[in-house]
Amino acid sequence: MSDPRVCLFVGTHPLPGQTFVNRHIEHMFGGNTCVISTDAASGENPYGKAIHDLSASRDRGLAALLALPERLRNQARFGTSHVPFGRGKEALRRFIREERVDIVLCEFGSRIAKIAPLAAEMDVPCYAYFRGRDATEELRKPRRLRGYRNLLPLLDGIFAVSEFLLQELAAAGLTHPNAHVVPSGVDIRRFRPGDKTPRSCVMVGRMVEKKSPLTTLRAFADATQGMPDAHLQVIGDGPLLAPSKALAAELGVTGRVTFEGALPHDNVRDALARSEVFLQHSVVGPSGDAEGLPTAIQEALACGCIVVSTRHAGIPEAVDHGVNGWLSEEHDLAGFTDQLHRALSGDQSGMTRAARATAEARFDNDVLLRRVETELRRAVTAHRSGTGRGRNAMPPQT
User: Fold this and answer.
1) What is the pLDDT of residues 181-197, one digit of tens each?
2) 34 with 13: CB under 8 angstroms?
3) What pTM, to 2 d.p., does this model score?
């Protein structure tokens, strides 16, 4: 069969930081893609795809008021009233038909209510991709659990970036017979080791509690005592950036820590290529938000960085303690400091090679993209042959 046309259901579009989504838009099935966005108000279209903006076709005013009973039914069944209805639903249906969509991939589990019911009604196969918050923090919300219970049976299958996320869903009583673990992956041809600067460290990510940057700074200050050549480059923006700068001054390490703020992806790649150690003290946030399997860690491994991180979410599925990095428990400052000191002491060339080998073996996003395409192609074939939604599924790939 020829490559199917896949419709990717995303959030705000475009978002440069969502490299995994953007790669799907640009490359899945050779670029035979179109996009449904919850908000494409910027009007930018960097990949030249057909885009349907849900926010532009939403019923408002009297039409929205008249649809109140339907919205309440959706709230009761799916945990949200934001299921397309009325004019918005018909515009979405028309887009799917006009674009000759063969299959829908919802890039975040928390948004499946906006597309799965209509896809099922139109008999278009539909999958969801769980990536982190959608299978951790969201599970604490009774309405979301209720919605997931009614929505998952409408799906032909689900993907998750880590086994951890599937386990979190299962612990909440949410399973699907056709579930696959497929990390987002990294372009191992672009992300490669460069000339490493001795005792160079880098931290990449949003400056939020889930990333625990203050713990990372304290560990760096303690672990590098007596190492005046050690340096930490901090890439990222967020609410904890100013407190982090203040803490660096308090700890007396401002001369050895550079706060870059947010940087373009190419600059991140260059920083990883020349850094010896990648730091990420991930923890479960106060709201229950957790990682899936951080893309930055996969990129760091591809660049031959020794990863110092935590036994959190899917991170141990990528970082083999003592082989390609070092792990401590969440919030264990002493343990994290000790692991960082190990990473900065002695010849670590073997761990650098192991990090690169891990990325090549597990996280090549060309290989991972083909795995997703294989499953989506199978589902389209099943629908065309009349075997039905979610039946005759291939065994889960892990």
Assistant:
1) 999 999 999 999 999 99
2) no
3) 0.93
Strand partners, 10: 37
| CA 373/CA 382 separation, integer angstroms | 14
Give the domain ranges of the chain: 6-185+365-384, 200-362
pLDDT at 397: 39
Say which CATH topology domain 6-185+365-384 has. Answer: Rossmann fold (3.40.50)
* Structure tokens belonging to residue 195: 């000339």
Q: Are strands 157-160 and 179-181 parallel, antiparallel or unpaired?
A: parallel
Fold of 200-362: Rossmann fold (3.40.50)
Instruction: Return d(Cα 271, Cα 265) in angstroms, integer.
Output: 10
Rounded Cα distance between 187 and 363, Å, is 8
Fold match between 6-185+365-384 and 200-362?
yes
CB atoms near residue 244 (< 10 Å):
21
Nearby residues of 11 by Cβ (< 8 Å), 6 or more positions away: 37, 38, 39, 107, 108, 111
- Name the β-bridge partners of 321: 325
